[in-house]
Design goal:
Pfam families: Aldedh (PF00171)
CATH superfamily of the largest domain: Aldehyde Dehydrogenase, Chain A, domain 1
Keywords: Oxidoreductase
Strand order of the largest sheet: 14-15-16-13-12-18-19
Bound molecules: NADPH dihydro-nicotinamide-adenine-dinucleotide phosphate
CATH architecture of the largest domain: 3-Layer(aba) Sandwich
Radius of gyration: 23 Å
CATH topology of the largest domain: Aldehyde Dehydrogenase, Chain A, domain 1
EC number: 1.2.1.3
Number of domains: 2
Family: Belongs to the aldehyde dehydrogenase family.
Protein name: Aldehyde dehydrogenase
Structural class: alpha/beta
Distance between the termini: 68 Å
Helix content: 25-40%
CATH class of the largest domain: Alpha Beta
Number of helices: 14
Shape: globular
Strand content: 15-25%
Length: 479
């Protein structure tokens, strides 16, 4: 085994403390790699490298920066099969989903390459004999701390707007999925990113993550992960007066009305909940179906869910891989264990860890449906990050929206109906950052992404995002 290194100042670097940690395949629990356990000193070196590279990177044109992205997007496509296998092995997702995520990464780079030409200030006429205008300046060193569910895509969302705006960067990947992130960073260097512009420090959230947030030279932190971690990061960042973007948990409701196309709603619920083994921030985490169509809808859903093939993501007929890590696996097992005894619903599909011959000790759990879930159930309150879908029947749309909004989260929500009045009501009254109509889960770098309430603040993606990575400087000129 070759230990994969951190990337600091364009070079592979070990940890100053000399320690490593294991990265394991969640389908087999086999050791894949050992990666340096980054220390406070490693973070300081990475930030120093980013600071030294800043002036050079900020002074080249946005179009030249964009060309690096363009070349990197092509290189990622050329190496897609190798990268997809790596992503599947460390994360667990089926190969098709891993390819999709890597295509998403390339697409994000190309989108920001296209936005390079829109980086400009304004000319503002003022009264009197003068001119005013604004110029946009990059912030300096930006940083991101990212999770393990979509490591490649989320890396793209974080680094691309920051770098295209002329900032330099330090990335802290999740400890269970650093390998694809390290490889993508080396591809960006191969595509022409100057040394020090993008640095990757591996290591624990408590040490590497918090040191990054505390570093006085880091001007902006973008974080995706659990709401509690987001609050901690927000507190630390506030004392350093840093900008923060927080993409936190979600418990997205899906509302199926009685006039919905049930086949397409069933397919949407299965994909919306079980894609990536249910580990997506905008997954369908609560399903509200009108009681008049509930029986038919649930029967079709049950049939579809029972057809899903659980297995190693490297096998080509796998529909759903394992959970990513041991604590997620234990959480889901514990959650499901007492459902019926505690009166939290009736398990109508799945409900246990399947056993596979010769598969080792992977973190597999069956896709699980729970019906008759009472409104105050834990299944509806927590962010259930795994393959479990609670189903609640409702009388009408007023009741569905009231229940859907009864959550501390507000990331996404979807409404499935053909009726325009119901669509309008859903779009106006559902309290979430993203509302889908007759679909769920779709994201794109062209449109803003982010939540309300405990799902965080700030947005990622979309053309307005660049302002999050730029300072406005006003110049007033007297003639
Ligand atoms: P965390 O929020 O703990 O981890 C996300 C990232 O933050 C990782 O890189 C982690 O590092 C880092 N981190 C952890 N603690 C700190 C800290 N104190 N300061 C700075 N960085 C830190 O999520 P978990 O991985 O523990 O997942 C737990 C739950 O979070 C899930 O069950 C799910 O509900 C939710 N979650 C939501 C996601 C979303 O997209 N909405 C994504 C991932 C998780 P390290 O990996 O080294 O611990």
């Amino acid at each position: 085994m070759v230990a994969m290194k951190m990337q600091i100042n364009g070079k592979a670097a070990g940890s100053c403390g000399g320690e490593c940690f294991d990265v394991r395949n969640p389908a087999t629990c086999e050791l894949l790699e050992q990666v340096p356990r980054g220390t406070e000193e490693d973070v300081a070196l990475a930030v120093e490298a980013a600071l030294s590279a800043f002036e050079g990177w900020a002074s080249i044109s946005p179009q030249q920066r964009g060309m690096v992205f363009y070349r990197a997007a092509g290189l990622v496509r050329q190496r897609k099969e190798e990268l997809a296998a790596l992503l599947t092995q460390e994360q667990g997702k089926p190969l098709a989903e891993a390819r999709n995520e890597l295509e998403g990464f390339s697409h994000v780079l190309e989108y920001y390459c296209g936005l390079a030409g829109s980086l400009r200030g304004d000319f503002i006429p003022v009264t009197g004999n003068g001119y005013s205008f604004t110029v946009k300046k990059p912030l300096g060193v930006c940083a991101a701390i990212i999770p393990w569910n979509m490591p490649a895509l989320i890396m793209g969302w974080k680094i691309a707007p920051a770098l295209i705006s002329g900032n330099t960067f330090v990335l802290k990947p999740a400890s269970s999925t650093p390998l694809t992130n390290l490889t993508l960073a080396s591809i960006l260097n191969e595509a022409g990113l100057p040394a020090g512009v993008l640095n990757v420090v591996t290591g624990s959230g408590e040490i590497a993550g918090e040191s990054l947030v505390r570093s006085p030279d880091v001007r902006k932190i973008s974080f995706t992960g659990e709401s509690g971690t987001g609050k901690r990061i927000s507190e630390l960042a506030a004392s350093g007066m840093k900008r923060v973007t927080l993409e936190l948990g979600g418990s997205d409701p899906m509302i199926v009305c009685d006039d919905a196309n049930l086949e397409s709603a069933v397919a949407g619920a299965i994909r919306g909940r079980f894609y990536n083994c249910g580990q997506t921030c905008t997954a369908v985490k609560r399903l509200y179906v009108f009681e008049s169509v509930a029986r038919e809808f649930i029967r079709k859903l049950e049939e579809g869910v029972k057809r899903l093939k659980v297995g190693n993501g490297l096998d080509k007929d796998t529909d759903m891989g394992p959970l990513n890590n041991h604590s997620q696996f234990e959480y889901i097992k514990e959650l499901v264990a007492g459902i019926e005894e505690k009166g939290e619903g009736r398990i109508i599909a799945g409900g246990k860890a399947p056993s596979f011959k010769g598969m080792g000790k992977g973190y597999f759990f069956e896709p699980t449906l729970v019906s008759d879930v009472p409104g105050d159930s834990r299944l509806l309150k927590e962010e259930v990050f795994g393959p479990l879908l609670p189903i609640v029947t409702v009388r009408n749309l007023d009741e569905a929206i009231e229940e859907a909004n009864r959550s501390i989260y507000g990331l996404g929500a979807s409404i499935w109906t053909k009726d325009l009045d119901r669509i309008r009501m859903g779009c106006e009254q559902l309290n979430a950052g993203i509302i889908w109509v007759n679909q769920h889960l779709k994201v794109a770098p062209e449109v803003p992404f982010g939540g309300v309430k405990e799902s965080g603040f700030g947005r990622e993606n979309g053309p307005d995002i660049l302002s999050e990575y730029l300072e406005t400087r006003t110049i007033m000129l007297k003639t």
